[in-house]
Design brief:
The complex is a heterodimer of chains A (194) and B (104). Chain A has 194 residues and is mostly helical. Chain A has six helices and two strands, in the order H-H-H-H-H-E-E-H. In chain B, 74% of the residues lie in helices and 0% in strands. Chain B has a domain of 65 residues. The chains are: A mainly alpha (194), B mainly alpha (104).
């Protein structure tokens, strides 16, 4: 039992408890708070694994952006009867049975998997990640290029470039946000079943 | 027991995934279902990041996919909330059992 295991066990139990809290809290506001704790725990897990940029992105985008959206949605729609909607007991029983079976299957598959247990010691940091997104790599080129001082090599295109997915995702996000603003605009006064 | 390997992370992610699935299946509030989807996406992300750490083949691919998932989850949450607000404006409820206009 070293520090890595202790930290992992602590974070994993926090994440698991918070996820259970999301599932079993009847009040939607409490579920949102439990989800917030789950997301923060997952971002700390990324820090524990050594991916600082991912952990920061998770904190900023998920906890700071998506959760604020969800909380606004809760605040705009949570009124009296919708704060606590009851689920039938039989649905709970079925869902927990199916979920337990699924978890058993996934856990057995994970345990049977001959996974490498050794750590990648040299995980790429932020600049290789950014260069991979831009489609260039800091590998020395075959021909000298102008514009680079002596002793420094120009970046060149690599086989694994993520420029196209990056562009697609960014345009997708823009289109989706415009569409969301269009969908959620105030059109008319609220009338029940109208 | 040196440190937690890939298996420990896979089992944690399986647990979070199953919690998300149960959340989607049992919640009647549409925003609760959206929270379940967020849990499922986070479980997938834990898998990607743990693979990036412990699998020698994907040191950068795991991070790239995890970032994509984070951005797509933000987009998905925005559009889902817009649809939920529209539904709430038209029907004055967020109970998904009442969303049966398309039922024949």
């Amino acid at each position: 039992m070293n520090a890595q295991w202790l930290l992992f066990a602590f974070l994993a139990s926090c994440i698991a408890c918070a996820a259970l809290g999301v599932v079993f809290s009847r009040n939607i506001v409490r579920a949102a708070v439990w989800l917030l704790f789950t997301l923060i725990g997952v971002s700390f897990l990324y820090f524990l694994l050594g991916f600082e940029f991912l952990g920061t992105a998770q904190l900023i985008v998920y906890v700071g952006g998506t959760m604020v959206l969800v909380v606004f949605g809760v605040m705009l729609t949570a009124q009296g009867p919708f704060l606590q909607l009851r689920t039938k007991r039989i649905e709970w029983v079925f869902a927990i049975l199916v979920g337990g079976a699924l978890f058993g299957l996934l856990a057995k598959a994970s345990l049977d998997l001959a996974t490498p247990q050794t750590k990648n010691e040299n995980i790429p940091g932020i600049s290789p990640l950014g260069l991979a997104f831009l489609g260039v790599d800091a590998v020395s080129p075959t021909v000298p290029m102008s514009g680079f001082p002596d002793g420094r090599e120009a970046p060149k295109r690599t086989a694994n470039s993520y420029l196209l997915p990056f562009e697609i995702v960014s345009v997708h996000l823009l289109v989706v946000l415009i569409a969301a603003a269009y969908l959620a605009r105030a059109k008319r006064k609220r009338t029940p079943h109208g | 027991m040196g440190e937690p390997g890939l298996t420990a992370y896979l089992i944690l992610s399986a647990f979070v995934f199953v919690c998300g699935i149960i959340c989607i299946a049992t919640k009647r509030n549409a925003i609760g279902i959206l929270m379940g989807v967020e849990l499922v996406l986070n479980a997938a992300n834990i898998n990607f990041v743990a693979s990036a750490r412990y699998h020698p083949g994907f040191p950068i691919e795991g991070q790239v996919f995890a970032l994509m998932v984070i951005v797509l989850a933000a987009a998905e949450a925005a559009v889902a909330l817009a649809i939920i607000l529209n539904f709430y404006n038209n029907h004055a409820t967020v109970d998904v059992d009442q969303a049966e206009d398309l039922k024949g």
